[in-house]
Amino acid sequence: MSRENFETISEAYGDLVDHFGYWAKVADIVDQLIDLIINYRQSGHPGGSRSKVQPFITLLLSGVMRWDIRHPEKRFADRFILLAGHTVPLVYCALAVLNEAMRLRYEESGDPRYLLGGDPSRVLYYQDLLTFRQRGGLSGHAEMAGKTLFLKFNTGPSGHGSSAAVGEALALKRAGLDEVKVFALEGEAGLTPGGNHEAMNSAWGLGLDNLYFILDWNDYGIDDHPLSSTVYGTPYDWFDSHGWRVFGVPLGSEWGPLAQGLLEMVLSSNPENAPSVTWVKTRKGRGYLKYDNLSHGSPHKLNCEVFWETKRAFAEKYGVTFTNFRGKPPRNSDELKAEFSSNLEAVMNVLHKDKELITYLSDRLLELGDSVPQEIPRFALNTNENPFKDMRFYDYENYPEDLYVKPGNKVANRAALGKWGAWVNALGAEKYGRPLILACSADLAGSTNIAGFGDGYGDFSGYGWYNRYGSCEGALLPQEITEFANAGIMAGLVTVNLATDAEREFNGFWGACSTYGAFSYLKYGMFRLFSQLAQDCPWKLGKILWIVGHSGPETADDSRTHFGIFSPGVTQLFPKGQIINLHPWEYNEVPVLLGAALQQKINLVALHLTRPAIEIPDRNALSIPSHFAAARGAYVIRDYRDDQPRGGAVVVQGTLAMANVLKILSQLANNKLNVKIICATSPELFALQPESYRESVLSPVEHMDSTVITTQARSLMHAWLFNEIAEEYALSADWDDKWRTGGTLDQVADEAHLSPDWLLGGIERFVRDREKRLQKFRYVLH
Predict the structure, then answer these.
(1) Which distant-in-sequence residues (6+ apart) come within 8 Å of 19 by Cβ?
(2) Using CB atoms within 10 A as the burial measure, which of 178, 239, 343, 689 is most buried?
(3) CA 582 to CA 593: how far, in whole Å?
(4) Radius of gyration from C-alpha coordinates of the chain
């Protein structure tokens, strides 16, 4: 450490010494509030919440984090993510105390500087603690919504928050906001999931020197064994091996060492641009009289003797009288709530009676809030213009001609993603001086063609790779096989809204990540959390393009381990209106579907792409609609003939399925198989069409008389399948309820019963059995 750094840290530490007495009293109050809400709700996690009190208060009040309790929406404020999301009682209770100090100071002085800004219903007051883990109240895990917009991601599942923190730090750094920091608080057991190791590697590879972890090292999780008996090493081993700077506080519940440790982490020089962590040694369940793993998620029994003992020292120290002290719980729920409320007030009265503490906290919080800069010179985004409102990005009918290919060319649909991505970021560079979309893949950037987001287009040379492998101007992240972390990085990235009014619009970066369709489940966890966040957060968020690449049996040579037949189904495990699935079968449908989907007010778009090159059809010669029709989610390839009895409708989805159906169109006519063929590209986009269009494609009566052809599992076609009768005639890659094997594309198509001969035979059976099928309906309805 340079002498200059040493002197800066020493001076900052000296300025804080006189604050420690105030912090200690705040900690005492927070401890009691944690105990009370968990006692009266009989649910929650006391041990980790208690052990993190001192580190958390030090972070909030030391000045190492620039934040404004009045305005959590400030775009240049530091971010906080509670990786240990189950310890959210800590955050609720700390905010309750600090907000109360601001409220009391404002009521006393009338000075608007102390007014908690924004929507009053979003301020967490101590009375809100009565709603802990109740429907409509304070959630059991950390959520970025309502009264807790201080939190900057939804967390709780272990290992999920780390990659989101990486994504947020990345968004800030790529926007030129190196000085805006991301702080993340975790426990050591929460570090053991593999996603954390992916996140740690990624943070180093992306040079995120604005990312700071605080690790509560108490050696226990949920089960009986200590972590040190199952995981080798110390926090130094865990983080230093990933290139992080590591700082330690052996006395993790004492103010002086904590302040010193955090100041060193944030203020010391960091020439290697490495992420940083400070570990703090604590005792899980500190002061709760129930320790280690036993304190994890198991409160003392309601109003039991040990619970009241945790109140005794506080009562004696501050002259507090608890209602029903050492008494058994009331039997009546209203009386229990009244006791809960009364005891919350008893604890908060310790703050109310201490004018000096109120003055200190309100002035300190005012000082910290004012420390958040209004402008940062290196900020790289022009927020006077919003590129996401530029209709050129969505107007697929007027995209450059070279984003589409001529009939007769043989090309994979995945290649269209690369070309479209290059154009999007080139237009962003030309018109807005920045990329629109930052992208990454599981060491498959070229294979899945997501590398196009860094490629050149026209006169623009391209943004290329980001940071350690490229430059800070890059748009393509050099990620390894970090499937889980890639999803989390994108989820964190798009939650960073740098617009001046985050409630009205989003301005920042959109994200894209890709992998094989077979491995889609590795991304679902983070996208599920992101979807929940997007549903409830009042601020606008960016969009994620989830590339489900190399999907279906078309992956052929890679065999069953890589076939995305069932796994892509995770992209459907979201509430209606929370995701758009896109299934282009050929190259020219890809830009069309992207433009149509990304224009919608839905934050998650899953684009299912395939590997093999197929011939682009001459749609005019085949008398089928333009590729622009794909934007409507479904369109008619072949309608019924009026001079023949109708044989039913067939909905087709997937590259191999659609390409081979086109090969048998003439045979369908020759064999007088009068079926209606519908190309399905997106059930969600189809649902957005006017009823008149939807009925022209597939009327309710036609839907009853239909089946499907798909390269995926038939169960994934529930949006198109009418019922079990339709399913009996479905032609799908899992036709025999078995995993496929492998081989050449033609061999796999044959085994999957998706070759032209199998499709013709299946449609013949469907038509031949029409009366039999309809008779089943008549029997059921009789």
Answers:
(1) 61, 62, 360, 364
(2) 239
(3) 7
(4) 30
CA distance 150 to 152: 6
Instruction: State which H helix or E strand residue 246 sits in.
Output: strand 245-249
In whole angstroms, what is the distance from residue 254 CA to residue 24 CA?
Answer: 9
Overall size of the chain counted in residues: 782
- How confident is the model at residue 5, as a pLDDT? 79
pLDDT of 782 reads 67
Q: What is the pLDDT of residue 383?
A: 87
Dist CA 342 CA 338 (whole Å): 6
Q: At what angle do helices 483-493 and 521-536 cross, to 10 degrees?
A: 20
* Separation between Cα atoms, residue 451 and residue 177, nearest integer Å: 25
Mean pLDDT by 10 residues, the chain (782 residues): 76 96 98 98 95 98 98 97 97 98 97 92 97 96 97 94 98 98 96 95 97 96 91 96 97 97 97 97 95 91 97 97 96 95 98 98 98 96 94 98 97 98 98 97 94 97 94 95 96 98 97 95 97 97 97 89 93 97 98 98 98 96 97 98 96 97 96 97 98 97 96 96 93 95 93 97 96 84 70
DSSP 102-145: HHHHHHHH--GGGS--S-GGGS--GGGGGGTTSTTSS-SS--SS
Are the beta carbons of 604 and 578 closer than 8 angstroms? yes
| Tokens 């198991």 sit on residue | 298
Instruction: Name the nearest CA neighbour of 445 among 468, 428, 422, 429.
Output: 422
DSSP 209: T
d(CA 487, CA 331): 48
Query: How far lies 249's CA from each of 189, 191, 214, 264, 292, in Å?
Result: 18, 18, 10, 11, 19
Would you list the DSSP string of 493-513? HTT---SSSTTT---S-EEEE
Which value, to the nearest 10 degrees, does the dihedral of the CA atoms of residues 534, 538, 542, 547 take? 10
Q: What is the pLDDT of residue 674?
A: 97
71 with 331: CB under 8 angstroms? no
Alpha-carbon distances, residue 136 vs 87, 92, 140, 722 (angstroms): 19, 15, 11, 37
Please list, in sequence order, all residues whose beta carbon lies within 8 angstroms of the beta carbon of residue 663, skipping any fewer than 6 positions away.
756
What residues form DSSP beta bridges with 186?
215
Long-range contacts (CB closer than 8 Å, 24 or more residues apart) made by 333-337:
336/40, 337/40, 337/130
**Maximum pairwise Cα distance, the chain:** 95
Amino acid at 186: E
- DSSP calls for 294-339: GGSS-PPPTT-HHHHHHHHHHHHHHT---TTTTPPPPSSHHHHHHH
Residue 605 pairs in a beta bridge with: 545, 580
Q: For residue 438, which of 399, 489, 497 has the smallest C-alpha distance?
A: 489
Closest CA to 439 of 489, 522, 511: 511
User: For residue 136, what are the contacts with CB-CB under 8 A and spacing of at least 6?
Assistant: none
**Rounded-to-integer distance, Cα 614 and Cα 655, Å:** 8
Going by the DSSP 8-state scheme, the letter that residue 552 receives in this structure is B
**Residue in the block written with tokens 């997501």:** 450
| 21 three-class SS | helix
Separation of alpha carbons 607 and 629, rounded Å: 17
Task: Tell me if 721 sits within 8 A of 730, measured CB to CB.
Answer: yes
What is this structure's pTM? 0.97
Burial environment of residue 740 by CB neighbours within 10 A (0 to 12, 13 to 18, 19 or more): buried
